[in-house]
Amino acid sequence: MKRLRLSAQIFILVASMIVLTLGVAFLLFDYQLKENLERAQGERVMGLAAALADRSDIRHALEATPIVHDADSALRRHVEALRERLGVDFITVMDRDHLRLTHPDPNEVGRHFRGGDEGPALAGESYVSRSEGTLGVSIRGFAPVRAADGQVIGAVATGVTLSRVGLLLAEKRQVVLLGTLLLMLVGGLGAWWLARYIKRILLGFEPHQISQWVQERQALLASLHEGVLAIDAGGELSLINPAARELLAPVGAAPATGVPAATLAQLFGDGTPAINQRLTLNGRALIVNRVQIRERARPRRRGREVAADNGAERIDETRSGGSVVTLRDRSEVNRLAEELTGVSRYAQALRASTHEFKNRLHVILGLVQLRDLGRLERYLHELDDTLIAPAAARVSGVKDPVLAGFLLAKGSEARERRIELEVELESDIPAAAEEEVCHLLVTIIGNLLENAFEAVAGRDERQVTLTLGLDAEALSLHVADSGCGMDAAQRDEVLEQGVSTKGEGRGYGLAMVRAHIDSRGGHLAIYSTPGRGTLVEVTLPYAVAPSWITDGVT
């Protein structure tokens, strides 16, 4: 036997449930509609009967001696006109002897009221009844007529026949039936669409293939280098991949099989969404992203509770279905950022140096072509005296060739931007014990110098000073500029990520510099006065390499 496809199974199941549910709902609604319509008609006719029982002309007719039972009486004509205007089938006034004073059929005037349900009204009660009379089965409202002294002198009965109620019910039932059929059609189309949609999002998998798909999903989670955890609505851990176990284990310890409740509380907190939140757990610096899972909550019914004020419908609230957290090792992210930023700074500085070198080379080639060897010799001496030797002398104390070359290149960039860059060394700067520290310095110095260059751009005095010094395994780094400076509020905000005085899309360089310095246990301070420039001071732990060799930069 051929197995039904998943889309066909979903369509048949959903369509059947929709048709069955709407069919049952229609029957229940039809029954409730009938009950409500009959109840409304009963309340209506009883209200009419009570209003008519208070009329003075009816009271006078029943107090008359003798009582007139005449089909041509003024009372009957007036009551019949009122009946047609109100849309009821009969209005009957009867005396204490159950004899009619009014009736739609003139021949019934003066005869006994039929139905046998008028007794309580003549005893002084108001009520609704259903009984068969001259016009057929009807819903009747009764009210007693009292004299001035309170004595019951008769009764008024108003009613509508079930045939009239049936006509009203048929009209409303037709609308409900058309609406139900339309809902069935829409539901069938929705079931068809749902079947195709589910089939599509499952990539064509059939039920017997889903287990294989789940296994592939587990393999995918296991292969992620990013940690993934999930908890359900009850706060229980429902998912954790191997990378998360490794990241949550203490440094140097083997990954644990479970996660302590205290760790889960730190990761998930109150479930509030978070993006790139920094957290330190078990000696590891982590970047945490948290997303809350929302699911629709079933509304609680309390009898015939009113949904909301002014008849507004209640909107189903959603409740938390748990949370998903992803983890990344911040040191790895920082390392990648350092590499990317360092490469960018290298490229920018080398581009400036290349441009400056090309300009000098063009001059040399021009003088060679002119065979003006004397002018060429003087030009080369000028370059050596004014550019090459001074620049090399300024960085002669920097023993790391990468950092020294970077500072030389930044000097070329400053000259190209018509900025006076001074590099001052308070002491020799030997190579660091860790190669990573060199890249970190390139990132920090590059960002600080770039900010200083931008601060002095467009000003009359364009001066930037970089001061380096080493004391007791701590590297001090100062960058001062002659820019416009900052006020106290700007100094407090400038280190926040995304905050910058240079416009939208900026404000990430200083935030990253502070993150790098904090990760190394360093310190950063900013001093600035409006109109007098800015000074940035950085102190960074710096372990000197056991041995270092210069590459001729002296």
TrEMBL record:
Its EC number is: 2.7.13.3
Looking at the record, the residues that make up the Histidine kinase domain are 331-544
Q: What GO CC terms are in its UniProt record?
A: plasma membrane
State which residue ranges cross the membrane. 6-29, 175-195
* Keywords attached to this entry: ATP-binding, Cell membrane, Kinase, Membrane, Nucleotide-binding, Phosphoprotein, Transferase, Transmembrane, Transmembrane helix, Two-component regulatory system
Q: How does it sit in the membrane?
A: Multi-pass membrane protein
Q: What is its main location?
A: membrane
One example of the protein's molecular function in GO is: protein histidine kinase activity
One Pfam family it belongs to: HATPase_c
Identify the domain of life.
Answer: Bacteria
Query: Which reaction is this enzyme known to catalyze?
Result: ATP + protein L-histidine = ADP + protein N-phospho-L-histidine
Cellular compartment(s): Cell membrane
Quote the PANTHER family the UniProt record gives: SENSOR PROTEIN CREC (PTHR44936:SF9)
- What name has this protein been given in UniProt? histidine kinase
Question: What organism does this protein naturally occur in?
Answer: Salinicola endophyticus
